[in-house]
C-alpha cells in the first residue's frame, strides 16, 4: 500500500456508504405507511449504522480496522431486517418481499 493511503480505503468507503443507504430505505417505508413510531425506530437505525460507517471511514490510514467495522455493520444489518421487519413488530411497515430481498443482498 502507498504511504498515507488506507490499504482497503475504497472498499471501506463503498461498504460504509451502502450500509447507510440500506438503512435509509427503511425510513421511506415508515413514511409511506405514515407510522411515526417506526419512523423514529428507522431514524435510530440510520443513526446506528451511520455511526458504524463514520467510525469505519475514520480509522487510521495504515489500518484495515475500517473495513472490519463496515463488515460488522453488514453482519448486523440482516439481523435488523429479520428481527424487526421480517418476523418482528415492524413487519407491517416493510413488504415481506423486500425484507427477504434485503436479507439476501446483505448476506
Automatic annotation (TrEMBL):
Keywords: Membrane, Transmembrane, Transmembrane helix. It comes from the Eukaryota. The chain crosses the membrane at residues 12-31, 37-55, 67-87. This is Uncharacterized protein. It comes from Paramoeba aestuarina.
